[in-house]
Amino acid sequence: MTQSRHDWPSLVASRSDAPAPPRASAARIGVGGPVGSGKTALIEALIPALHRRGVDLAVVTNDLVTKEDAERLRRSGLIAPERVLAVEAGACPHTVIREDPTLNMAAGDDLEAAFPGLELVIFESGGDNLASTFSLDLVDWWIFVIDVAGGDDIPRKKGPGVLKSDLLVVNKTDLAPHVGVDLPRMLAEADAVRGGRPVVATNARSGAGVEDVADAIAHAVLFRE
Ligand SMILES: Nc1nc2c(ncn2[C@@H]2O[C@H](COP(=O)(O)OP(=O)(O)OP(=O)(O)O)[C@@H](O)[C@H]2O)c(=O)[nH]1
Questions:
Q1: Which residue range(s) make up the domain with 136?
Q2: For binding GTP, which residues are annotated in this chain's numbering (predicted)?
């Protein structure tokens, strides 16, 4: 069953059920997913939601050969521009978030050095396909964003992001009637393949569902008793 904001404890995936040790450094989370699924739009919606929760945060973006997503966030007025760093992934976006995340780890370290008291660094992956996953050397917890317009068969394709992410976000719910997608069925199929890991439906443009995602982040990696 897809989660509502009132059942946030169940949004915290199984790996996060164990109490987190007190941390001296900022929590690090990933936001990955196919090209155009709405990763940047979700981060734009999450920044104010996390600020309202008092979270001191920064963002690292990954683009293939540009800094476009970073420039968009810096221009957004949602976050101080110096709190957004860009990694240029080169030819293979998988590599910098999974096989060799050293560039991203260094960017996270730079942000922590520049902003003492930083609590959260969000790493946005470059636009990619269903196969991308994050190295757990880089992040503590990660979100995979798919979108309704990509087709209601995406959960049935069982890509690693759909299966393994700590939170699956099904974005662009507003488009379902326009693209002939049966949204309740898509969400049910996503639930079915994830073995109890949470799924949240969002419309990153209107903000629907974004509070659920912010709650999930807060309870998974930030506010732990
Ligand atoms: N209708 C609708 N459009 C959305 C939603 N979320 C994002 N978009 C639009 O989808 C397009 C892609 O969104 P982005 O946030 O750039 O997607 P992305 O995953 O960051 O893209 P890449 O970084 O290029 O992979 C933009 O035109 C957004 O305005 C949504 O919930 N509903």
A1: 24-222
A2: 33-40
How many folded domains does the chain comprise? 1
Confirm or reject: Cβ of 159 under 6 Å from ligand 1: no
Q: Fill in the amino acid letter for 1.
A: M
Q: Is the CB of 149 under 6 A from ligand 1?
A: no
Residue 77 marked in a binding site: no
**Using a 6 Å cutoff on CB, does residue 213 contact ligand 1?**
no
CATH no. for residue 90? 3.40.50.300
- Euclidean distance between CA atoms 92 and 95, whole angstroms: 6
131 and 68 Cβ atoms separated by less than 8 Å: no
Cα–Cα–Cα angle for 39, 20, 7, rounded to 5 degrees: 60
Give residue 42 CA to ligand 1 midpoint distance, Å.
8
Check if the interface score ipTM surpasses 0.95: yes
Does 21 have pLDDT greater than 70? no
Minimal CA–CA distance to 199: which of 161, 167, 177?
167
pLDDT of residue 94: 73
